[in-house]
Each structure stands twice: as structure tokens, then as C-alpha cells.
């Protein structure tokens, strides 16, 4: 079943409410009119009874003239004998005052006026009174119907007008595109503010996701161009080469370019996954066992033919974090140290209370280049070793996800060190 629009639902609900209130008002007015008409007719009936009795006392021949369909009277003496009546059977003798009786098959309202020697009984059917009240209420109903006929369209117009901010809000949301995801800044009713805030957060996340996707695509296209071009050139050289030694050398260089491209793709994907972790806030929280983590990683390095670094543990404090990401962080730090410190350099991993340090005794990094080491694809001028310049970017992102600080710089005794400072446990 197709959901009905808010305009239809609100308009129909308010229209039904207005109709119900109008009916209640009509019934209330009808009951009030009946009450007031009854009071007025009671006064009139009492006045007529007293006036008729007074006239008969002054002139015994002067009896009241009545409409037999609307009124009846009976005159009694002080002994209760009937002297005159307008109906047969006559109205009964009753005490002075107002009475409601069943007479001649219907309900009557009777007024009895008395004097020293006589009693005048004057009455009228309740049905006559009801017809009089109904006629009066009918005269009032016409203006009320006119008011209802004007009120319903007014209510529907007010509902349509009241929903204008919702239509404006929907138009503003519909105007957003993947290229235009700025926050909704136009004033909104208080009822729409939670939705506006949620949509703005969603737009921010979508914008960040699109930006990451575009950045990843641009980075991959830019950085893969060089190794792929190198592969193509070396393969063309190998294809045209007649000298086996030259062909073998070109093939080896093409294979090295493929390895660089493969490493670059791995690092780009790792960085993209890290950014996704940060956007989704899905960082795992588990107790990190540094000795076990280092032992596992060093075994992997040894199996790959990479000499493991030295390990120094100085009472490391308990840490909650993502062991997989911290393994990636440590692997990148060791890899960078191995690559840029030289094959003969000693790489040491030092883990102390709330800090992880990877240092080497190589030549270090020029002071003017250190501030840019965390930038994507930045490599120091003159760097001959293959690489993409993403290692420290990955390290910095993992440290940021763990709310850890990163310090990097040359050591006093020579070499270079990168230190990760984890926050103290709460």
C-alpha cells in the first residue's frame, strides 16, 4: 500500500477533528437551545395560567382561548370539582406549581395557578416544546454550516502552508549531488533540526568517502604511471634486444618495476583501508601482547629473508588497540629503517611504558627534509632506493587511529629514530 502524503494525512485528520468538534458544538448548542426554550416556555405557561385565573376571578365568563393542538386548560373550584375544560378528558387537578405528567398518550408540561376558590391548570405537550426548540436550532444551524464550509478549506490551506518548510527542506536535499554535498544551512523548524543534523553528518561522511575515492584513484593513477611505463619500456627493450645479456638485464629491470608497482598497490590499499577504519570508527580494541606481536612479525620477516631487528623490552604497559594495524605499523617502521639506513645498519625496536621506538645507526635524514617525511609520496631528494613514499603516512594514520603521537628525528649518536607515544590508560 502506497504511503499517503503528510498533506493528505494532516488535512484529513484535522478535517475529521473539525467536523467532530462542529458536531459536538451543534449538539451542545441544540441542548442549550432546548433548555433555554423550555425555561422561556415555562415562564410563559406560568404567566398565562396566572393571567387566566385572574381574568376568571374578575369575570367568570372570561375563559382562556387555546389552540387545542398546542395547549389545554382545566378550571377547578376549591372542592376539586371541574368547572370548565378545553379537552376531554380534562387535565387533572394538581397542586400549585410546575409538573410533568403523562396525559392523553404523551408527555405534558403543566402549570397550576391557584386562588382562594379556584385552580387553573394550564399545560402543553413536550413534543410542541421540542418542535419549537428544533425550529430555533435549525435557524442557528445555517450560519454554523456556512462557518464549517469556510473553515474546512481554511484548515487545508493552513496545513499546506504549514508544510512549506518541509517542501523547502526536501528541495534543498534534492539539490545535493555527489559533487555538491555542502551542509544544509538554511533555517529549519525545530522538528526538522534532528533530521538536518543527521543529514549533514551523512553528507560529511559521503563527501569524505568520495574525496577518499577520488584521492585514491588519483594517487594510484599518478604513482603507477612510472613503474608501469618502466615495465613497458624494459619489456620493449628485451623484445628488441639481440644480446642475451642485455635481454636478461631488461627483463630483470622490468621485474623490479613490477615489484615496485605491486608494493605501491599494497601500500595504497593499506592506506585506503586505514582511512576507511577512521571514517567508520571501527577500530578493534584488544589487549596488545608486545612480545607475542614482535615474535610473530619477526618470524614473518625471517621467512621472507629479511633480517629481524633487535628487540628491547623495558616493562611495556598494557595497551588496548588493533593488533593487526599495530603489526602493519611496526612492519613499515622496520622496512623504512632497513631500506634507508643501509644494509649494514643495525635496526632496533625498543618498547617501553607507553612508547614504541624503531631506530637505526644509519646516516639519518637531512634536517630540512624531516618536516615532510609524513607526506604522501614524499621521498628525500636524491633517494635512489625504490619506494612510494607512503610508509610513514601509513604509520602516522595508524598512530592517529590509536590517538598516539609520532616523533621522528635524527639521533644524537647518529642514525634516525621514529617514536610512537601511546596515551596513558584512563
Describe, in plain words, how this protein is organized in 3D.
With 426 residues, the protein is of the alpha+beta class. The chain has three domains: 6-160, Beta-Lactamase, CATH 3.30.450; 179-282; 284-426, Histidine kinase-like ATPase, C-terminal domain (Heat Shock Protein 90). It contains nine helices and twelve strands. The chain has helices at 6-58, 126-162, 164-174, 193-240, 244-280, 290-303, 323-341, 367-370, 391-401, and strands at 72-77, 82-85, 97-103, 106-114, 118-125, 286-287, 310-313, 320-321, 347-352, 355-360, 405-410, 416-421. Strands 2-1-5-4-3 form a five-stranded antiparallel sheet. A five-stranded mixed sheet has the order 7-9-10-12-11. Helix 4 packs antiparallel against helix 5 (244-280). The radius of gyration is 51 Å and the shape is rod-shaped. Mean pLDDT is 79; it is low at 381-388.
Describe the secondary structure blueprint for this structure.
Layout: H1 6-58, E1 72-77, E2 82-85, E3 97-103, E4 106-114, E5 118-125, H2 126-162, H3 164-174, H4 193-240, H5 244-280, E6 286-287, H6 290-303, E7 310-313, E8 320-321, H7 323-341, E9 347-352, E10 355-360, H8 367-370, H9 391-401, E11 405-410, E12 416-421
Parallel strand pairs: 7-9
Antiparallel strand pairs: 1-2, 1-5, 3-4, 4-5, 6-8, 9-10, 10-12, 11-12
Helix pairs in contact: 1-2, 4-5, 5-9, 7-9
Amino acid at each position: 500500500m502506497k504511503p499517503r502524503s503528510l498533506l493528505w494525512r494532516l488535512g484529513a485528520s484535522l478535517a475529521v477533528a473539525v467536523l467532530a468538534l462542529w458536531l459536538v458544538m451543534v449538539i451542545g448548542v441544540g441542548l442549550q437551545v432546548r433548555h433555554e426554550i423550555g425555561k422561556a416556555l415555562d415562564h410563559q405557561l406560568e404567566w398565562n395560567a396566572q393571567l387566566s385565573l385572574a381574568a376568571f376571578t374578575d369575570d367568570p365568563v372570561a375563559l382562556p382561548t387555546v389552540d387545542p393542538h398546542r395547549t389545554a386548560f382545566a378550571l377547578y373550584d376549591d372542592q376539586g370539582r371541574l368547572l370548565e375544560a378545553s379537552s376531554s378528558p380534562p387535565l387533572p387537578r394538581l397542586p400549585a406549581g410546575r409538573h410533568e405528567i403523562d396525559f392523553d398518550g404523551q408527555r405534558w408540561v403543566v402549570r397550576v395557578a391557584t386562588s382562594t376558590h379556584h385552580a387553573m391548570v394550564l399545560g402543553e405537550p413536550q413534543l410542541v416544546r421540542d418542535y419549537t426548540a428544533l425550529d430555533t436550532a435549525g435557524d442557528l444551524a445555517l450560519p454554523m454550516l456556512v462557518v464549517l464550509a469556510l473553515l474546512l478549506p481554511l484548515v487545508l490551506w493552513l496545513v499546506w502552508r504549514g508544510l512549506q518548510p518541509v517542501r523547502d527542506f526536501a528541495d534543498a536535499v534534492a539539490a545535493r549531488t555527489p559533487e555538491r554535498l555542502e551542509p544544509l544551512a538554511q533555517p529549519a523548524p525545530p522538528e526538522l533540526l534532528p533530521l538536518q543534523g543527521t543529514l549533514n553528518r551523512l553528507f560529511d561522511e559521503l563527501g569524505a568517502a568520495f574525496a577518499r575515492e577520488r584521492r585514491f584513484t588519483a594517487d594510484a593513477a599518478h604513482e603507477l604511471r612510472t613503474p608501469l611505463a618502466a615495465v613497458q619500456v624494459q619489456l620493449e627493450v628485451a623484445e628488441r634486444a639481440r644480446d642475451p645479456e642485455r635481454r636478461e638485464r631488461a627483463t630483470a629491470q622490468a621485474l623490479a618495476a613490477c615489484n615496485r608497482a605491486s608494493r605501491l598497490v599494497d601500500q595504497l590499499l593499506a592506506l585506503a583501508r586505514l582511512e576507511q577504519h577512521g571514517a567508520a570508527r571501527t577500530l578493534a580494541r584488544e589487549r596488545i601482547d608486545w612480545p607475542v606481536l614482535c615474535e610473530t612479525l619477526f618470524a614473518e620477516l625471517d621467512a621472507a629473508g629479511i633480517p629481524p631487528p633487535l628487540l628491547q623490552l623495558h616493562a611495556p604497559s598494557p595497551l588496548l588497540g588493533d593488533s593487526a594495524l599495530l603489526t602493519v605499523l611496526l612492519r613499515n617502521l622496520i622496512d623504512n629503517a632497513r631500506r634507508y639506513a643501509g644494509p649494514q645498519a643495525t635496526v632496533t625496536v625498543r618498547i617501553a611504558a607507553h612508547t614504541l621506538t624503531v631506530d637505526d645507526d644509519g646516516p639519518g635524514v637531512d634536517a630540512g627534509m624531516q618536516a615532510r617525511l609524513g607526506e604522501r609520496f614524499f621521498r628525500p631528494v636524491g633517494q635512489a632506493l625504490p619506494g612510494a613514499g607512503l610508509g610513514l603516512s601509513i604509520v602516522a594514520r595508524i598512530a592517529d587511529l590509536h590517538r598516539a603521537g609520532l616523533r621522528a628525528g635524527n639521533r644524537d649518536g647518529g642514525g634516525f629514530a621514529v617514536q610512537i607515544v601511546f596515551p596513558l590508560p584512563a
